[in-house]
Amino acid sequence: MQKSRFLFRLLKRRLPVALAVMAGFAVIGLLVGVARPITYKADAILMASFGQIDEGISQSGVQTDEILSLQVIQQKILTRNRLEEIKGKLNGNPDLDIQDLRDSTSINISGGPALRGPSQPIVVRVSFSHKSPEIAADVANEIAREIASWNKEMRLDISARNLELSLDALNQLSRDVEAKTAEVRSFKLSHSDALPASLAILRTEKELYESQLVQLEEERALIEGRLAGGGSKEASEIESRLQEIQIEYETLASVYTSTHPRLKELSGQMSVLNSRGERLAVRSGLEDEAATQNLHDKLHDIEEKKQDILIEIQSLEESIVKTPVIALDQSRIEGELAKLTADHDEARRIARQARSQHLIEQQYMERRIELVEPAIATNNPNGVSFEIFMSIFAIAGLSLGSVLAVTLEYIDKTIRHPADISKSIGIDVIGSVPFIPSDQENLHSILRNRLAPLVIPT
Which of 74, 128, 416, 430 stands 20 to 30 A from 455 (CA)? Predict the structure, then answer.
């Protein structure tokens, strides 16, 4: 009961202090709220190709990191040159400053691929704050349109660049394939006698020439035999007998003198045989001369054919020896041609895909990113209003005043007289109020002042 009365008396005596502090803080909050500029915030929302394009068509277009490209655009859109262009599109509003444009613009990108579950739509929120709600909405919408335009141009530029690069690569590979094909053709023409495909033919031709050479040798032997045994049988016998007599004569002549009877006999026989041979030769010479000449001509032809065949055989042997080396070179250049052809086919496929992607981007460019929620002018100020500022400062003042009142009362209750404080800490007391005595202290005072004179005589 005493505590309640004490608190009531405390509130009664110290309430003016708390109210004064609260009023002072409320005034400060009001001044701060009024002095603070009032701004209006406008939001424009973009959505990047979510549900607006068929999934198959979207996958057939240029595959880019949409989040990354939008972040790049976000960085570029806030440069001075781009902000100057935006300001120019808004008729150069004098209330717009480039630095204020940059500081008051907020671009937030959310959505995209998720670690788990389906991808979320990519949402770009463009916010702009200004003291004029109309200007805030116009700037937010203009920045949003610039972002959408840049995103479309970037995708179209990427698809056009991909198409150009793929066509350049295809043309270069076409020239390379043509040059390599000509090289292979020239190689085969210059090494036609030693190509791997003709190795069996070369060996067959060599065997054929060798068999022809054997036949020519046989013909040559026959013709030489006919030439060696030419004339009649009688002439051959005379020739054979004459050779025998000559051998015997030479043998005896080395032992006896020329007057020896046997030598004379042999000499006479040789004379007779020579005479007979000459007569036979004269008689058959006219007949065999044409045949002999013909045989000699055949021998000459056979020799020429043999030389030609030997040259061909030597050439074939050289070609057969060179064939493995030529085969390696041919395999190398044909492998290069095959690789270039495969690269050319792949480049043609990539070029077709790039052309298709470019056409898709041109056709669906306007639907890749859209302004789904344009910014509108609003009368609701952005941030904390001056009423809230005043209320916050008033509550803070009331709290501080209450703390101050309790502190002052505590000081007065603990230290009975201001002089005690001065003596204790050596300073003058500021804000001290008279001490509030308790009921017990009042009773003691009455007893001391009224009963003491009756008990203690004066």
Answer: 416
Give the DSSP letter of residue 78: T
Q: How far is CA 331 from CA 177, 187, 328, 336, 344, in A?
A: 16, 11, 5, 9, 19
* Per-residue confidence (pLDDT) for residue 429, from 0 to 100: 47
Work out the burial of residue 40: count CB atoms within 10 Å of its CB; fewer than 13 is exposed, 13-18 middle, 19 or more buried: buried
> Tokens at residue 143, please?
């920045």
Please, which residues have CB within 8 angstroms of residue 379's CB and are 6 or more apart in sequence?
40, 133
Q: Which helix (H) or strand (E) holds 382?
A: strand 381-382
User: How far apart (Å, rounded) are the C-alpha atoms in residues 334 and 381?
Assistant: 77
Select from 3.40.50, 3.30.1890, 2.40.128, 1.10.10 the CATH code of 39-166+357-386.
3.30.1890
Contact by Cβ (8 Å): 49, 152 = no
Question: Kind and range of the H or E element at 418?
Answer: helix 418-425
Residues 6+ apart with CB under 8 A from 222: none
> What is the C-alpha separation between 32 and 26, in angstroms, rounded?
10
Residue with tokens 């595959």: 63
pLDDT band, very low/low/confident/very high, at 223 (cuts 50, 70, 90): low
Tell me whether residue 86 is exposed, middle or buried, using C-beta atoms within 10 angstroms of its C-beta: 0 to 12, 13 to 18, 19 or more: buried
Cβ-proximal residues to 142 (8 Å cutoff; 6+ apart), any chain: 86, 89, 90
pLDDT tens across 89-101, in order? Answer: 766 565 566 666 7
* Residues belonging to the chain: 458
Strand partners, 47: 123, 370
> In which element (H, E) is residue 129 found?
strand 120-130
Residue 56 has pLDDT above 50, yes or no: no
Q: Can you tell me the distance from the alpha carbon of 158 to that of 166, in angstroms, rounded to the nearest whole number?
A: 12
CATH tag for 192-349 (out of 1.10.1740, 1.10.357, 3.40.50, 1.10.287):
1.10.287
Residue 87 has a CB neighbour count (10 Å cut-off) of 18
Domain boundaries, given as residue ranges, for the chain: 39-166+357-386, 192-349
**Eight-class DSSP state of 448:** I
Q: Whole-angstrom Cα distance, residue 442 to residue 438? A: 6
Q: What is the CA radius of gyration of the chain?
A: 65
Break the chain down into helix, strand, coil percent, rounded to 5: 75, 10, 15
Cα distances from 446 to residues 310, 331, 453, in angstroms, run 162, 132, 12
**Regarding predicted confidence, which is higher, 240 or 291?**
240
Residue-wise burial string across 179-194, b where 16 or more C-beta atoms lie within 10 A, e elsewhere = ebeeeeeebeeebeeb
The helix (H) or strand (E) run that includes residue 220 is: helix 199-228
